[in-house]
Design goal:
Elements (H helix, E strand, L loop, with lengths): L1 H7 L3 E5 L2 H11 L7 E3 L5 H10 L3 E5 L15 E4 L10 H12 L4 H21 L7 E5 L3 H4 L3 H6 L5 E2 L3 H8 L14 E2 L3 E5 L12
Parallel strand pairs: 1-3, 1-4, 2-3, 4-5, 5-8, 6-8
Antiparallel strand pairs: 7-8
Helix pairs in contact: 4-5
GO molecular function: ATP binding; helicase activity; hydrolase activity, acting on acid anhydrides, in phosphorus-containing anhydrides; nucleic acid binding
Pfam families: Helicase_C_2
InterPro entries: ATP-dep_Helicase_C, P-loop_NTPase
Length: 210
Amino acid sequence: MQRLVLASRARAFLLFHSRRMLDEVYSRLALTLPFPLLRQGDHPHRELLRRFRTEPAVLLGLKSFWEGVDIAGDALSLVVIDRLSFAMPDDPLHEARVTAMRARGEDWFGDFVLPQVVLQLRQGIERLLRTSQDRRVIAILDTRVLIRGYGRRIVDALPPARRTAQFEEVVRFFAPQEEILVPPAVPCFPGEDRLWLSRPSRGSSLPHRY
């Protein structure tokens, strides 16, 4: 995340699947990044967005934070998603449907859970890419997009964008005429003026279920 934020010169949303991970990354980045850090919960939602729009900053929030968010223009250049969430929502109807599909021997994950995850991800990204003039990198830092068979379904469902496996391309995307000192060689896998990438993160604890 630090490399990506340095390349984008802030103007970044960092979205997390848990509060614990959000706070841990916030504590680490606060020691190293030369940009203001805004953390969900420290200020009202409207105040965080106001400050983000008026100064180059890095906003850290839970994935629910981007619901209803509309950031136009150059104020937002980078969106990082630490991990896709396959956890079942606290919804009896959802749980009942999964139980019924299991009982019938149906593919409850591929036919029900995964399409919901893909839809939520696509809708969230489309809210942040309102026009063809929005130039942004979307980074999905979840190894399952690389190593699980359903990863291709997730990537293919995203809006059209150029994909890259080279971190140097991300640097050039943000500053094609300038040289930026950013640590190189981040292994990537993604997704014309928009760029998807997905990168494995060391030490990430991933459930064996999916």
